[in-house]
Task: structure prediction
Amino acid sequence: MRRWRNALVAVTLVALASSAAGCTRAVTGTAQPDPTTAAVTITEDGYGIRAGFDDAPVEIEIFTEPQCTHCADLQADFGDQLAHYIAAGQLAVTYRPVTFLDTEVDGHSARVANALFVAAAPSPDGDTPTGPDFQRFVEELWAAQDPGGSGPSDDEMADMARAAGVPDAQANEIASGDPAFDTTGMSDTNLTFLIDVDPLASGTPTVFDMTNEEKLDVYDDDWLSTLMAS
Result:
């Protein structure tokens, strides 16, 4: 399925295009991720954000809409557990935002999605948030959702990012409110992936077990603990 989906990305993109102080020395070059910390990276197709170690034994995708109240419930109920498993190296989570509840191009959902990708992109110094920090940022954003409204302000999202541990460079860019990401292409592509996962019930939240290639029942209170125990 993954090879098929990678091919579909290419087709979709073509269509969318019409710690203590001590001795120090200066080091040049690009900052590298800390191998002992769960990393945050943007997926190869450009429209997902992966939080977790490269060798995490369990991988899931979460399709989520910033104004979806059920998505907010998912974060409220399981967000802390997700952060724990990410930090422990047991789980990698790829977030795939969609924006179908927006009524305008730069609406609430698009602004939140833009903030997510700004937070995940490396700063000029190569800094990125850790996986658990990014997960906490997601939790805060969905807890502050305003379905049908304008959503949190750029400054409010930047404050959430800083509080979660997102580096200042990314938080400052979030505060600027400048569009930095193709949220329309993101939503179109991720909706295609979502339909691939479940063409009959393509709603949010949808959690897809990438290891076993199956949709998980997130309305089962034990879905996450069962997944991690399997």
User: Anything to note?
Assistant: The beta strands are 39-42, 49-52, 58-64, 91-97, 206-209, 214-216.
